[in-house]
Structures are given as structure tokens and as C-alpha cells.
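User: I've been going back and forth on whether these two constructs are worth ordering. Before I decide, could you fold them both?

Assistant: Sure. I'll take them in the order you sent them. The first construct and its C-alpha cells:
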Amino acid sequence: MGKEIERKYLVNGEAWKELGEGVLYRQGYLNSRKERVVRARTMGPKAALTIKGITVGATRLEFEYDIPMDDCNQLLDLCEQPIIEKTRYKIPFGGLIWEVDEFHGVNDGLVVAECELESEDQSIDKPEWIGDEVTGDPRYFNSNLIANPFTAW
């Protein structure tokens, strides 16, 4: 069984951009219901199918499987619209890898950072560009940015 424990934060400024190279992600949702999210995603030259359970605190079940790029592109055509497009930067800090997502398209202007943890109560050192925590705010779930894009807030 796979588990994901992560915290999500807003990002302040642009100093983080100097700390890593970005990779374009395109992802769509075959099912965006909070009880069982099913996502197809391209990550640069790679593709994956991911199934996630409901989030409880900062934890949820997660299963991810590599799939052929052609299959993923066909699945993206079947997904709920719009497709989420973002550039992801992976930045090491304080013994963690911070994944900073800079959104494009209908979510342009939104920048969030996530870090995966070993436990929900794990203490973390935050980079200076980390802002308010939004872990429990469903507006920031990628699956919710389809029906309620950031540019419409």
C-alpha cells in the first residue's frame, strides 16, 4: 500500500527560480472526486497513471504507475477539462525536496510548494520563500483547479 504525506504552501517572490530547472507537467483527471482521484500525467519525457484516496490531515493513499507516453496522451484527451499545465521545480532544502509548481493557462499566477514527509508531525525547516500553509484548503488541490481555476478566484 502506498501512502503520501505532504504539506503544501504558497510561495512568495521568485528567488526559488534560481535554485532549479523546471520540467513541464500536463495532467488531467479521469475522476476528480475527492474519494478517488484518478490522474494521467506527463512529466517531461515520462508519463504516469496515479490513483489517490481521500486526504485525511496531510495523508492519503497513493498508487502511481509508469505508462507509455502515447497512452497518456490519449488518456489526456478523455480527461475532464481543462488540463492542468504547470512547470515543476525540485529544490533541495533542509533535508527535503521541495516541489515548486508554477501553474499556466487558467491557473496562471498560482505558485505552490509541496514537501513529502515521513510523518504528519515531522518538523521541517522552511526556505525563506515559503508562505502560508494551504495543506487543508481544497481550493489548492490540483483536481479542484479544473472546475474552479485560480484566475476565476
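The second construct, handled the same way:
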Amino acid sequence: MERILVVDDEAFIRENLERILEEDGYRPYSTASGDEAVREVSEEEIDLVLLDLNLGNKSGLDVLRAMREVDPEVLVIIITGYGTVESAVEALKLGAYDYIKKPFKADAIRLIVRLALETQNLRREVRQLRRSNPMRDLPDDSVMVGSSPQLMQVYRQIREVAKHETATVLVTGESGTGKELVARAVHHLSPREGKPFIEINCGSLPFNLLETELFGHERGAFTDAKSRKIGLFEEADGGTIFLDEIGEMDMNLQVKLLRVLEDRKIRRLGGTRNIDIDVRVIAATNRDLKEALEQKAFREDLYYRLNVFPIHVSPLRERREDIPALLELFLKHFSSAFNKDIREISRDALDLLMRYHWPGNVRELRNVVERICIMNDRQTLLSDCLPREIWGEEPLKETPFTYQVPPEGLLFEEIVEQVEKSLISQAVQMTGGNVAKTARLLSLPRGTLRYKMEKYGLVETV
């Protein structure tokens, strides 16, 4: 049963909120004291706090800051009067989950509390999954984060193939999905850990340079060969060589690589003897090698030599459930790297990041978090911190609005509801029912918008 703390200096408000929360099966506690509320958060596990901004002679913002100091994970909903909306927005910047204005309706409270607790449960699940991540014992340069079925399958494949230290591995996937991390994880979990891990991008060098990099050369092998050079296969002896972008390798060089895989021997350029090597080969590509075979751009015999143990890394758009854990990892890293006190990403910003299609995959997500950490000093990153390509459409521009009062008078509340329903309906149509985008268009908290959409029978499609 979730524990909810109500902090308000008005006894009527506290009693009313406790009654609503008890009816919904929660365990509410209440206090009129900001200091007592901070003490409660520091000593007890509180799932949610409903905090009034005006606590007599105590500022709710100061209480919020103190709560976040003792428990950075505490979830707080701000209760604010009509004249303190600016302060509520400031509270969001300090890390509050959302705010609701007085006077509030019971249904609105129930909805925003339910959404907040769903968010809190999701955060806890992410932290638990990160602790139980089977890749957590890897070095920093090999760590993989996520708990999607696709990534769990990759974890299992890594652990199995790592046991067999000579098996060749072919890692496929779009650019930015983390193919190098897979290669490093296989190496570090294998008996070859502690031996060299050598990597080279086969698409970054022309044929002649790549050849000498891989196999080395003897002095005098060509005009500029003034001394012997040890190739990467020799340097990797006993360890692992990672051939990234193998699909870009020249066809002539593919023949030599095939011979190395078959014979486990190399010969330096200009050399006269074969050199035995003990190396696991891991190759990676973002190309469709089967299509390359049809186009005669890749050797069929080399493909089957490399494809002994295939591992496919799915694009991020197909495993969106991994995004929160990746965000937490990158946010912690860059917040520390740039000496910032950025602790989390707001719910609206997370919704936008979850819906974005991520053509650059995990690498793009990492770059986005790095960029917003550089540009912001807030404890909580809001949706307006995100790059334009993430949040898409421009916010709705303000348009002048007039309404003539007829001589016979009117029902004010009815007219307000008609206008409100019309505006929300237009915004819902513009965003295709996307609640996060609709809330941004109308400058409304998502909890408030969802309540109004339910009230007017408007459908949330995504």
C-alpha cells in the first residue's frame, strides 16, 4: 500500500485529501509543518508527497529543496493557489513531478496521484533492472544497459559464446546500436580477458594501408617501409581482434582474411614465412551482408567463415523500454563530467524521448543527453531543454480571443467549458492524440490535460 504524505497548513485541505486518498486505498499521512515533512521524508520511505507552496511563514519551495537534499528520488506534487502558478513552474525546475491548482476536484487529485505513482513504480523497476543487469560486472567501456527482450537475448548470446574462446563472432546492427560494446563484452567475459583487445575500422583506411595495419610488413617491402612493422593480428595474439565495418573491406583483402581464419597464420608484407597466431576474430557491420553477397560486393566463403556465431543488436526504436535506463546512465555520467547537479528528467521530457524514433540509436541518445547537460543547470531537465528534433512541432501560438456577452446574459461556466473543449479537441487532432505534445501545445500539465480529456470524452491514442 503506497504511503502518501500531505503537507498543508490548512486543516480542511489536509482532511479532505486524506479522505480522498483513503478511499482509493492509499495510506495518507499529513502535517502542517514543512520541517516535520522533511524529517518524515528523511526517516521513512514515502512514495509521494502532496506539498502546498504556501505554508504560512515557510516557503514550499524551501521545503521542496530540503526534501530533494535528503531524498533525491522523492516524488512531489505541488498544490498551488491561483496567484502562485509562477512559483509552481519554479518548483518543476527544482524537480517537482507536477502541480495542481486550488480549488481542485477529487477526480483531478485521483488522476494525478495515480499517474505519479505509476511513474514512481517505473523508476524503481528501472533501478532494480539495472542492479540485476547480467552485464553489470563488465568494465565501463563494455557496459550494456537495458532489459528489453531483445537485449536480454544479446546478453545470453554474449555469455554463451564468451565461453568458447576461438569461435568467430559476427555482430550486426544499425550504426550506433552498440556493436563495439558487444565485442568488448565477449572479450572481457572470455578466458582471453587480460590479453589484448585490438580494434580497427575496416572502412576508414584504403586497401594498402589496411593491409599493412592488419598483417604488418618487413623492412623494404615497399618504398616507405624503412623498418619492420608488427601488424594488429600479431599485437592481438592471445586476445581478440575486432574488425568493425567488415562489409567495407576490399575484395582482395577479403581473400587474405579468409586465409587467416582458415589457417590461423599470417604473413607480413614482404615476408617469407608464416607466423602462427592465436586470436579470436569478432567482426561487425551495419550493412546487409546477404544483400552484399548478391551484389558480388562480399565473398560468400568469407561470410560463412565470419558468421559462425551471429549476434544482432536491434535498433533503439524497437526496444524503447531500454531508454529510461540509458537516460539514467548517461545523465549520471555527464552530470558528473560537467560538474552539474542534474538529477533526473521530467515526465513530459521522458515521454518525448520515449516517442522519438532515434535514427542514430544509442549513440544519438548519448549525444542528446550530453548536449542538454552542457546547456542546463537545473536539477530536473524539462521538455524545453530538448533539441527541436526531439519535440517536433512548434508550440501553439497565442491567438486573440473575444466573446460578446448577449443582452439576455449567459451561463459563464458553460461557455468556458465549450471553449476549453474546443481548444483541447483542436490540439488533440493536431497531435494525433499524443498527450505529451497536446499538453505542450496548450501549456498544461499532463495530469490536468488527461483529466480534462476524460471529462470531455476526448480519446488519447498514444
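Notes on the second construct follow. Residues 393-400 have pLDDT under 50 and may be disordered. The longest helix spans residues 106-131.
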